[in-house]
Design brief:
Number of strands of chain B: 12
Helix content of chain A: under 10%
Distance between the termini of chain A: 33 Å
Radius of gyration of chain A: 13 Å
Number of strands of chain A: 11
Order of helices and strands of chain A: EEEEEEEEEEE
Radius of gyration of chain B: 14 Å
Structural class of chain A: mainly beta
Helix content of chain B: under 10%
Distance between the termini of chain B: 41 Å
Number of helices of chain B: 0
Structural class of chain B: mainly beta
Oligomer: heterodimer
Largest sheet of chain B: 6 strands, mixed
Largest interface: A-B, 25 and 26 residues
Order of helices and strands of chain B: EEEEEEEEEEEE
Number of helices of chain A: 0
């Protein structure tokens, strides 16, 4: 496989469920990102990881819990979500966050619906 | 603070027409990078171009061309002889050279009708 992959592509969950989103990059990059894209809102950066260390948390509620076990994999654990959390969640990777200005390559996203 | 504005929310054209997407940005940094991404209905953001703030040369790639004008803080994107497959949302974005935060514009939806 090439590029950035995300699973599942679609997810419907209740407010009391716990689920996880998975992202995997096959580009040899060291930085990974989670973005949220809601209807009628700009893309919002949620978390940044560089060399497995979290370097950015953009004031994201604790019901979203990221995990980065290695530079190729990134997870977003979800629990007790709200309907307003329904959105497209995009994962991205770049060569090295510390080099600055690097191109971010995106996965296809997980379209999440919270009922 | 950085800001990217895409004033056109939606553009509709007929196939083979040219379409230009505007992008205006604000930044206090002297060194930065500008990007364009395409988001087709499938959802994936597809990287199109990255441009360094010191490189004001216009660029052409097939039917795509970009016009970077630092004096007006604009980085416009033109699709020549549009095709139905060009239908997508296009995002302009900015990142400072020493940073990792990509600031996106609101996107412009392009609809190309046959």
């Amino acid at each position: 496989e090439t590029g950035v992959t995300q699973t599942p592509r679609h997810l419907v969950m209740g407010m009391t469920n716990k689920k996880s989103l998975k992202c995997e990059q096959h580009l040899g990059h060291n930085a990974m990102y989670w973005y949220k894209q809601s209807a009628k809102k700009p893309l919002e950066l949620m978390f940044v990881y560089n060399f497995k260390e979290q370097t950015e948390n953009n004031s994201v509620p604790s019901r979203f819990s990221p995990e980065c076990p290695n530079s190729s994999h990134l997870f977003l654990h979800l629990h007790t979500l709200q309907p307003e959390d329904s959105a497209l969640y995009l994962c991205a990777s770049s060569q090295d966050r510390n080099r600055g200005g690097e191109t971010q390559y995106f996965g296809p996203g997980t379209r999440l619906l919270v009922l | 603070a950085q800001k990217v504005t895409q004033a056109q929310t939606e553009i509709s054209v007929v196939e083979k027409e040219d379409v230009t997407l505007d992008c205006v940005y604000e930044t206090r940094d002297t060194t930065y990078y500008l990007f364009w991404y395409k988001q087709p209905p499938s959802g994936e953001l597809v990287f199109l171009i990255r441009r360094n703030s010191f490189d004001e040369q216009n660029e052409i790639s097939g039917r795509y061309s970009w016009n970077f004008q630092k004096s007006t803080s604009s980085f416009n994107f033109t699709i020549t002889a549009s095709q139905v497959v060009d239908s997508a949302v296009y995002f302009c974005a900015l990142i400072k050279a020493a940073g990792n935060k990509l600031t996106f514009g609101g996107g412009t939806r392009v609809l190309v009708k046959p």
